Amino acid sequence: MADATYRRLTRYAVFSVLQLVVFLAVLLLGVEQGLAGLAFVVVTLPLLWAWGHFVADIELNPFLDDATRERWRLAVYLVPGALAIYWHRYVRAQRTLV
What we know:
This protein is mainly α. It has five helices and no strands. The protein has helices at residues 3-29, 33-44, 47-60, 66-78, 82-97. Helix 1 packs antiparallel against helix 5 and helix 3 packs antiparallel against helix 4.
Protein backbone atom coordinates (compact mmCIF):
# COMPACT_ATOMS: atom_id res chain seq x y z
CA MET A 1 0.00 0.00 0.00
CA ALA A 2 1.37 3.40 -0.94
CA ASP A 3 2.49 5.63 1.90
CA ALA A 4 0.25 8.52 0.85
CA THR A 5 -2.81 6.26 0.78
CA TYR A 6 -1.95 4.78 4.16
CA ARG A 7 -1.49 8.24 5.70
CA ARG A 8 -4.77 9.45 4.20
CA LEU A 9 -6.73 6.46 5.50
CA THR A 10 -5.05 6.83 8.89
CA ARG A 11 -6.03 10.50 9.08
CA TYR A 12 -9.63 9.66 8.19
CA ALA A 13 -9.67 6.88 10.80
CA VAL A 14 -8.71 9.48 13.42
CA PHE A 15 -11.61 11.68 12.30
CA SER A 16 -13.85 8.62 12.64
CA VAL A 17 -12.73 8.15 16.25
CA LEU A 18 -13.45 11.82 16.89
CA GLN A 19 -16.93 11.33 15.42
CA LEU A 20 -17.50 8.36 17.73
CA VAL A 21 -16.32 10.33 20.78
CA VAL A 22 -18.65 13.24 19.96
CA PHE A 23 -21.52 10.83 19.32
CA LEU A 24 -21.03 9.13 22.70
CA ALA A 25 -20.56 12.45 24.50
CA VAL A 26 -23.80 13.79 23.03
CA LEU A 27 -25.65 10.66 24.14
CA LEU A 28 -24.18 10.53 27.63
CA LEU A 29 -24.13 14.23 28.48
CA GLY A 30 -27.63 15.05 27.28
CA VAL A 31 -26.57 18.02 25.17
CA GLU A 32 -29.27 20.29 23.76
CA GLN A 33 -30.62 18.91 20.47
CA GLY A 34 -29.60 21.79 18.25
CA LEU A 35 -26.07 21.92 19.62
CA ALA A 36 -25.76 18.13 19.46
CA GLY A 37 -26.81 18.07 15.82
CA LEU A 38 -24.42 20.87 14.92
CA ALA A 39 -21.50 19.15 16.69
CA PHE A 40 -22.22 15.87 14.94
CA VAL A 41 -22.42 17.55 11.53
CA VAL A 42 -19.13 19.40 12.12
CA VAL A 43 -17.21 16.23 13.02
CA THR A 44 -18.83 14.31 10.15
CA LEU A 45 -17.85 16.83 7.44
CA PRO A 46 -14.23 15.59 7.08
CA LEU A 47 -15.60 12.08 6.62
CA LEU A 48 -17.42 13.07 3.43
CA TRP A 49 -14.08 12.72 1.61
CA ALA A 50 -13.15 9.60 3.57
CA TRP A 51 -16.10 7.43 2.62
CA GLY A 52 -15.07 7.16 -1.03
CA HIS A 53 -11.52 6.16 -0.15
CA PHE A 54 -12.65 3.54 2.32
CA VAL A 55 -15.30 2.11 -0.02
CA ALA A 56 -12.63 1.80 -2.73
CA ASP A 57 -10.37 -0.01 -0.28
CA ILE A 58 -13.24 -2.31 0.71
CA GLU A 59 -13.92 -3.14 -2.94
CA LEU A 60 -10.27 -3.96 -3.62
CA ASN A 61 -9.65 -5.88 -0.39
CA PRO A 62 -8.84 -9.49 -1.37
CA PHE A 63 -9.59 -10.78 2.14
CA LEU A 64 -13.32 -9.93 1.98
CA ASP A 65 -16.09 -11.92 0.33
CA ASP A 66 -19.16 -10.26 -1.21
CA ALA A 67 -21.33 -10.48 1.91
CA THR A 68 -18.62 -9.00 4.10
CA ARG A 69 -18.00 -6.23 1.59
CA GLU A 70 -21.68 -5.34 1.68
CA ARG A 71 -21.71 -5.22 5.48
CA TRP A 72 -18.61 -3.00 5.56
CA ARG A 73 -20.07 -0.64 2.94
CA LEU A 74 -23.19 -0.20 5.06
CA ALA A 75 -21.22 0.19 8.28
CA VAL A 76 -18.93 2.85 6.78
CA TYR A 77 -21.91 5.10 6.08
CA LEU A 78 -24.12 4.32 9.06
CA VAL A 79 -21.99 3.46 12.10
CA PRO A 80 -19.95 6.15 13.86
CA GLY A 81 -16.41 4.89 14.29
CA ALA A 82 -16.69 2.16 11.64
CA LEU A 83 -13.90 3.69 9.55
CA ALA A 84 -11.53 3.37 12.49
CA ILE A 85 -12.54 -0.24 13.06
CA TYR A 86 -12.02 -1.10 9.38
CA TRP A 87 -8.68 0.74 9.38
CA HIS A 88 -7.50 -1.15 12.45
CA ARG A 89 -8.67 -4.52 11.19
CA TYR A 90 -7.60 -4.37 7.53
CA VAL A 91 -5.56 -1.31 6.54
CA ARG A 92 -3.18 -1.44 9.50
CA ALA A 93 -2.96 -5.22 9.27
CA GLN A 94 -2.03 -5.08 5.58
CA ARG A 95 0.60 -2.44 6.36
CA THR A 96 2.27 -4.70 8.93
CA LEU A 97 2.36 -7.58 6.42
CA VAL A 98 4.39 -5.54 3.93
